[in-house]
Design a protein that fits this description.
The protein is α/β, with parallel strands linked by helices and about 300 residues long. It has a domain at about 5-165 and about 195-220 and about 265-275: NAD(P)-binding Rossmann-like Domain (Rossmann fold), CATH 3.40.50. The protein is built from 9 helices and 13 strands. The chain has helices at about 15-25, 55-60, 80-95, 135-145, 170-180, 195-205, 225-235, 265-270, 280-285, and strands spanning about 5-10, 30-35, 45-50, 65-70, 100-110, 120-125, 155-160, 165, 190, 195, 215-220, 225, 260-265.
Length: about 300
């Protein structure tokens, strides 16, 4: 048995793997275990094979509770049922079995989808959360459950709202250069993102804080319009740059810059977070990987 505090990373996908790797590089001091339905071994961590949807699979975890939990699984498909099973019921099952000590630290990986703003406004952690889509609605419910478990541990629970998560250049950006968008006005909408490595670094930074904020945005330094991203990408590849669309949108009737949102990372900066990839330019300049993803 190790004397080091024990950390469970529930979900050993790309973010879970990045967390294990970053933990080893930073020497975080935790003995790390990962949890997934398949026997996915990661160097630097022991692995627990269990299904978050099956309470019986998780009962043994309550016999030796963890000191910290990072909850970051991914649903099998983009549907309300899959999101509810993964983010809400899975979290409830894991906490109900006693896997986390009552005064343990919990980081729930959420999404900026919990913000419903679509008018180009500036958004921070105090902004209204009124998501219109099912994913944001379910994630917001799961956030509330995470923060209330148990209710007396303020400062030991944090919901990290990640923006579009990517590794390298997402394939669809190249497709958009070749094929015009069905709604050209979408080029004027604001978008937000964060590199996978920076997301992992932010989460580990939070884990080291004596008290964590209840919510924090995980985004890079520069919200950008899709048009700006595509024009930069075209210039990098010597392609014809896309032209700005007409001012008014036939889909929404909104005008230039009045869709999407601009999400602030000021709170993360105040805690010492400095992204290695401060904008899409640094992140997308890496060698392209067509298997890369952005959520």
């Amino acid at each position: 048995m190790t004397d080091s505090p024990r950390l469970l990373i529930a979900g050993s996908g790309r973010l879970g793997a990045a967390l294990v790797k970053a933990s080893a590089a930073a020497g975080c001091g935790y003995h790390i275990s990962t949890l997934n339905r398949s026997a996915t071994e990661l160097a630097g961590a022991t692995h627990v094979v269990a299904d978050l949807g099956r309470s019986a699979d998780l009962l043994a975890l309550g016999q030796n509770p963890f000191d910290a939990l990072i909850y970051c699984p991914a649903p099998d498909q983009r549907s309300a049922a899959a999101y509810r099973q993964t983010y809400l019921y899975g979290l409830q099952n894991l906490l109900s079995c006693g896997a986390l000590r009552a005064n343990g630290r919990l980081i729930f990986v959420s999404s900026t989808a919990v913000y419903g703003q679509d008018d180009g406004s500036h958004v921070d952690e105090l902004s209204t959360t009124r998501p219109q889509a099912f994913n944001g609605q379910i994630l917001l419910q799961a956030e509330q459950h995470a923060l209330a478990w148990p209710a007396a541990t303020t400062g030991l629970r944090c919901c990290v709202r990640l923006a579009g998560l990517y590794v390298d250049l997402p394939r669809r950006y190249l497709q958009w250069l070749d094929q015009p968008l069905a709604d050209p006005a979408a080029l004027l909408c604001w978008s937000n993102r964060i590199h996978l490595q920076d997301a992992a670094r932010l989460i580990l930074l939070l884990l080291a804080q004596s008290r964590m904020p209840a919510h924090i945005n995980g985004v890079d330094n520069e919200p950008s319009r899709l048009l700006e991203v595509l024009q930069w990408l075209a210039a990098q590849r010597g392609l014809t740059q896309p032209e700005p669309p007409p001012d008014a949108s036939p889909r929404t009737g909104q005008r230039d810059g009045q869709c999407g949102k601009r999400i602030s990372n000021a709170l993360a900066h105040s805690l010492g977070f400095v992204p290695v990839y401060p904008s899409f330019r640094e992140g997308f300049a890496e060698p392209a990987n067509t298997a890369a993803m952005e959520s």
